[in-house]
Amino acid sequence: MPRIVAKQRPAQRFRLKVVNAVGAGLQTLGFDIGNLDPEELCKEASKRNRLYDFGGNEFLEPLRVFVESIENAPPMHPFGRLAVRQTLLHALSNRLLLQAYWTKHPEALETPVRRPLFILGSPRTGTTLLFNLLAQDSAHRPLMNWEASTPAPSSRPAYDYKYAAETSGQLHYFLPELRHKHNCGPNDPEECNILFLNSIESEILYFWYDVPHYRMWLNTRDRTGSYCYYRNQLKVLQHQRPGTRWLLKSTTHIFSLSALLTVFPDACIIQTHRDPLKALPSTCSLQSTFRGLCYSVVDQARLAQESAEQLSLGLTNCRIDRLRFPEHHFYDSYYSELVRDPIGIVKGIYRKFEFDLSHDTLDRMTRYLAANPQHKYGVHRYHLEDFGLNAAHERHRFADYVSAFKIPEES
């Protein structure tokens, strides 16, 4: 039987406590801490950037749904309100900068994104290891953390890098345990789901924030439009810094594989697999860490149930979507094999998609593995019972996925 899981009260760094104390005092005096009114956010973003064209208004509906979800969900502390406000303001600023860029450089949108290589799968299945390994190939053009943060340059390009570095530094300061769960600095390859924040249609938003209404709304959303906007952002980036072939990774693509292949019909897809009963508690642990930055209390049991439902939905959607497309698009990578023989997996990927694998690339990959052993930043420990999940129930929930891909059970 799963043990009873109490609501967690995350530890807070001194600076966070100070912000919350000052914010609470200002709220008592009637000040609005972290105003999230969509109209005011748009005005503030325009004022900051001296730009006024957001490139259409399709982002307004997801923005309103998300803000309504924040206001009707468990309350954030003042630091959390300020954090989510900054997230939205930065996304809106990016929209303004992107529109200004392709207005000035319309030729950027005329260059196709040819045969991109995507890594997707449930979280905690080796996607990061595989991503970083494949990024050692100079033929690949990975999305870097600093450019994902601000895909179209602002009037102060040096600040764009500084912003990404400061954001990464603050995350690791306020969440010191993050380093051994998901370590990423400004110069590292980054998950491309960050680019979907600029459409306000991103799984990141319900991963970081407790917004069940927004999560359910996004699950029913036709994502083709946001994938088109995502593709245009890639075109802006490759116009600035060209490469041979995009290397992209996001676990969230499992929710919208059909939209991805509609927008990128020549895409090469690597789907990573692992026993869901290992992937699930690791996901819950990482999500709980992020939630702890913005909330005084994190309901571990509810978070775990929602995570299990969401992961099951994503894997089901992905399995069904795959039936609509030819198998030449797909390569399946299994976690146990990846950990045991990562170079063997790489060679299988290159054979599948008929990529050239040079000796120099293999040498760089081998050196990367030697310099970055598993658990380099510490061991990430997690158990189903930590989140009140029942192994037999979860095994039944994921039975179709496990059977379809013949995934071995991990002890």
Which features would summarize this protein structure in a list?
53% helix; Rossmann fold; mainly alpha; globular; 411 residues; five-stranded parallel β-sheet; 5 strands
CATH topology group: Rossmann fold
Give the name of the CATH superfamily: P-loop containing nucleotide triphosphate hydrolases
Order of helices and strands: HHHHEHEHHHHHEHEHHEHHHHH
> What spatial order of strands do you see in the largest sheet?
2-3-1-4-5
CATH class: Alpha Beta
How would you describe the overall organization of this protein?
Helices cover 53% and strands 6% of the residues. The chain is mainly alpha-helical. The chain has one domain: Rossmann fold (3-Layer(aba) Sandwich). It has a five-stranded parallel beta sheet. Helix 3 packs antiparallel against helix 9 (212-219), helix 10 crosses helix 11 and helix 12 (276-291) crosses helix 13. It starts with 13 loop residues before the first helix and ends in a 6-residue tail after the last helix. The mean pLDDT is 91.
Quick summary of this structure?
The protein has 411 residues and is mostly helical. It is 53% helix and 6% strand.
